[in-house]
């Protein structure tokens, strides 16, 4: 049982860029040598700015796109070695929740049909038993069973995301990857969906990978955190440790940017450099307030025991500013959660 | 739903009315005098001309002529052809099946070629088969119908002798001969539409294939053929349905050049002859019939649209 459920090793995905004549013109290094392991029944959060490769990493992990190099092991099995048919059969064990619930549901399929499709495909319930299983799943995510006969466009964003969650759970997956599952939702609905996810993870013993840029949510449900910058992991460790004592300057800057946290860290300047031509040496050096000559020349290695960081200076940096708990009611998410605590159903 | 349908039917009446005024007015702007054309040899005799004008009510004020025509048209009487002395309704009913057969065949050819080609080229984007399909579509769209028609006659009739070069045999008379006489013109008409359908299907499929719900379908573990057919294509067909009905309506309005080349006695030929001979009742009748076909088709398109797009049903 100690073997991780999902293990990524040296994953790499570059998207080639071509000019109008189809000649190669460099590549976007979306994911550039990522190794991660997700233990069974735990929640790993992958955080980082837009364009850092989080979503690509999620799709690579499910082999929805093919990596250029590296391996993906699911339950000890190399996903890349599976035949297309074997991979399709495997898909029932690993599911994905997308960011935009308006795009992820087929507009021409009723909610019930969309949820029943994997049930039928993987023969999960006996023939004819789909309807009751669909109703059960809908109730599990807080929707009325009658919703099955309705069309996706008849639901609100939050309801649609609940449908997408029910759909993802239909095949009884062991691993679920949520690619920004709440960031497209109204703030008032976010807390409800986060609570729903947290409940489901706990009750079903799911292994969950949460891709997010919302550190408030991450802090709420993640066991471990991996911070991504320009296609690489810059820091990885237990969520509590990373939040309490971030070792990478980038992580510190991210934490400082969370509203209402009251942490003071040197402000991060400039934009993310282009992933087509990432800076030499440490990729963060162009924006790092502590950068030295070494950082500009040599790429740092992700090093350390259970709490790893890719920074030459991690042992010499001034201690992270103390984590002040925001004053009660200062945390937007917490406030909302308190407000919605008896997780009301919307339908 | 019923209310919507009735409202939609109600819109047809003013559309046709406005159109009838326009066509009536525009005819008056055409150069030439129908009385002169009809008088033929006797065009020098003022008495003959006056008699013709009186008979055809051409001496009456225009509004009166129009009201007279409308009053009878709503009863299904489109008057007589001045030139061939036959009821216009009869002429239309004679030609309509010919044009209808040609249109259906051309449209089937376009569908059978255009939609699969669009799907394949979207799925195999930037591969040789995509280039080939795009090249053929461009060819289909840009080849003038008369040129393609002449080339086909040269190849299949003159060189190979497989098909009759021209003429028309009704389907009820001899189905095989009927198909033989219409397959070439149908292909000529269908090839251009196939190209248009292919390009639109391709674009819509590329859009659909990059949607999250298609990724969801893949993540469910569905076979790629099911992903493409059940999830992507069904959504991609929505814009194609609109386009298809417009193209079909255009086919039913008759294909002047193609019918001319293959000497097929359809709508196109009827209206061209009528215009050249200032045969006003025929022109009016054909235009109104075409308009009626168009508005009916667009009504069908709207119904089809609701069938393929559940988002419109509750509206």
From TrEMBL, chain A:
It is found in: Cell inner membrane. Pfam families: ABC_tran (PF00005), oligo_HPY (PF08352). GO terms for cellular component: plasma membrane. Residues 6-255 form the ABC transporter domain. GO terms for biological process: peptide transport; transmembrane transport. Its main location: membrane. It is a peripheral membrane protein. InterPro entries: AAA+_ATPase, ABC_transp_ATP-bind, ABC_transporter-like_ATP-bd, ABC_transporter-like_CS, Oligopep_ABC_C, P-loop_NTPase. SMART domains: AAA. The keyword Nucleotide-binding applies. Keywords: ATP-binding, Nucleotide-binding, Transport. One of its GO terms (molecular function) is ATP hydrolysis activity. It comes from the Bacteria. PANTHER family: D,D-DIPEPTIDE TRANSPORT ATP-BINDING PROTEIN DDPF-RELATED, TRANSPORT ATP-BINDING PROTEIN. Belongs to the ABC transporter superfamily. This is Oligopeptide transport system ATP-binding protein. It comes from Belnapia rosea.
From TrEMBL, chain B:
One of its GO terms (cellular component) is plasma membrane. InterPro entries: BPD_transp_1_N, MetI-like, MetI-like_sf. It holds the Pfam family BPD_transp_1_N. It is found in: Cell membrane. Belongs to the binding-protein-dependent transport system permease family. The keyword Transmembrane applies. This is Peptide/nickel transport system permease protein. It comes from Belnapia rosea. The chain crosses the membrane at residues 12-30, 100-123, 135-158, 178-198, 286-308. The keyword RNA-binding does not apply. GO terms for molecular function: dipeptide transmembrane transporter activity. Keywords: Cell membrane, Membrane, Transmembrane, Transmembrane helix, Transport. Residues 96-305 form the ABC transmembrane type-1 domain. It is a multi-pass membrane protein. It comes from the Bacteria.
